[in-house]
Specification:
4 strands, single chain, alpha+beta, Endonuclease, Chain A, 5 helices
Length: about 130
């Protein structure tokens, strides 16, 4: 198992709690498929602080972050921030899978299949 503890800014903890209470429809739908170890037995957290960011979903055993990009990610500045954020997370050893809010909401099975394919090809603990 490659998981290691990545420190985070403690000031993010309360904001992460608020985000968990106000998830987007796509996040809520995907959470129903990620929770309770439904993805090949792996545990995912939602709205998880990592370093100076909060990722939508995180599996510490796989060091895998899943980000759901809604319309707030469409602008040029937001996309530049997303790239910087992704590079920082990757530098910490975290893989980031990105999906649109629309795909997560309306093509949930495809999103879940993509996540499962990633897990199958990268997990060392599968039976």
């Amino acid at each position: 198992m490659k998981h290691r503890i990545i420190p985070y800014d403690p000031k993010l903890k309360e904001f992460a709690r608020q985000l968990r209470q106000n998830m987007t429809p796509g996040e809520t739908k995907l959470w129903q498929r990620l929770r309770k170890k439904q993805i090949l037995g792996f545990d995912f957290d939602r709205q998880r602080p990592i370093d100076r960011f909060i990722v939508d979903f995180y599996c510490k055993d796989l060091m895998l972050a899943i980000e759901i990009d809604g319309s707030s990610h469409d602008g040029e500045l937001a996309q530049a921030r997303d790239i910087e954020r992704q590079h920082r997370l990757e530098a910490l050893g975290v893989t980031v899978l990105r999906f649109t809010e629309s795909d997560t909401l309306y093509k949930t099975d495809c999103v879940v299949a993509t996540i499962e394919a990633y897990v199958r090809s990268n997990a060392t603990d599968l039976d």
